[in-house]
Amino acid sequence: MPLTPVLTKAKNKDMQAMGKYAAKRLLSALAVMAIVSLVAFAVFEIIPGNAALIAAGTEGGISSIAAMESELGLDRSFFERLASYYKGLLTLDFGTSSYYGERVTTLIAQRLSVTFPLAFLSVLIAFSLSLIIGSAAAIKKGSILDAVSRSIVQLASSVPSFWLSLLLLVLFSSFLHIAEVGNYVRPSVSFSGYLKSIIIPVIVLAISELGPLLRLVRASMIRAVDEDWYRIGKVRGVSKPRLIISYAIRYALPGPFTLAGTELAKLLGGTAIVESVFALPGLGRLFLTAVEMRDIPLVEGIVIFVAFLVVVMNLLTDLLLFFLNPSLRREEGVRA
After folding, report:
1. Is 103 in a helix, a strand, or coil?
2. To the nearest whole number, what is the mean pLDDT of the chain?
3. Domain-by-domain residue ranges, the chain?
4. Residue 190: in which H helix or E strand, if any?
């Protein structure tokens, strides 16, 4: 029997399985976003007070507050506001910030340009270090290197980010003079100045992400080197570096890779403490200001945007792992 038709049939089955899996995950992601958006709207409707009271100030009278409520659309019924809210979500229009007076999407885009490189570089550094240290610790299980890796996990997981931020701030800025704090420089103005302004925040966030990633890489690699195919490869004379790089790491990668994607999405909305310490005009700091000023449109916009990023990151990670892992495609094909 010719081999080409068999390979073509198997490839078609894989493509069908991928299509069905992608459709399921997409529907699941849309359902999650619908629930999150509804919960976000309902929560901000329930809490007492509104943006009109903040905007009118302590000297504002009833008439000025009523005028501000009318301007912000707060005098409409619940269902009218809900319909307007979902219409805005479908058109990517989150409204206008009551505090800044700018479009919410514009504010998020401006601050995301600060937060995204910060989060991406932090996760990239943490993932790379965890892959190197975790793999070495798993292969040398029970050695001094393994004990050091476990100590790093405990230390990285227990040190508060604000304390570490202050410690590194004093070390790098006051003693070593190789970083600048409180003076954020955009890369378009000066790339070297940009690196100096974000190097400490990146290190702080990378250390905070190193703990869970290193723990998962080590555990995944220990399972990988305990598999039968790893022992068979050693018996057949396959070189240890090839076994580790070509097989063990590929086997252990899905879990840490998924966690890295989730942590990246989480950091895009969870860098408020670090951004506040280092005076970075990022998305986390914007969220704190919005909450403090009861800027409901801005708070809702950031919450929905971060939830959307988490859902999209999980979706892309799942699809990539499904594409790279033939066993998942076979399982999906059998269920179909």
Report:
1. strand
2. 77
3. 24-335
4. none
What span, in angstroms and rounded, lies between the C-alpha atoms of 160 and 165? 9
Q: What is the pLDDT of residue 60?
A: 58
Reading the block at residue 224, the tokens are: 């990988």
**Integer Cα distance of 302 and 94 in angstroms:** 9
Which residues contact residue 3 at a Cβ distance below 8 angstroms, ignoring those fewer than 6 apart? none
Decide if 311 contacts 33 (C-beta within 8 A). Answer: yes
Q: Is the pTM of this model over 0.85?
A: no
The CATH number of domain 24-335 is 1.10.3720.10: yes
* Alpha-carbon gap, residue 228 to 234, rounded angstroms: 10
Of 54-58, 121-125, 226-230, 314-318, give the range with the top mean pLDDT: 121-125
Range 87-113 average pLDDT: 85
Question: 317 and 258 in contact (C-beta within 8 Å)?
Answer: yes
CA–centroid distance for 71 within its chain: 35
Structure tokens at 322: 């499904």
119-176 residue pLDDT tens:
999 999 999 999 888 888 888 888 888 888 888 888 888 888 878 888 887 777 777 6
Is-contact 99 93, C-beta < 8 A? Answer: no
What pLDDT shows up at residue 305?
87
Question: Which two tokens mark 314?
Answer: 């999980």
Q: What is the token pair recorded at 150?
A: 């476990």
**H-assigned helices in 279-325:** 283-292, 296-324
> Which two tokens mark 257?
């890779």
Between 110 and 157, residue with greater pLDDT: 110
Residue 216 sits at the vertex; the CA angle it makes with 201 and 23, to the nearest 5 degrees, is 95
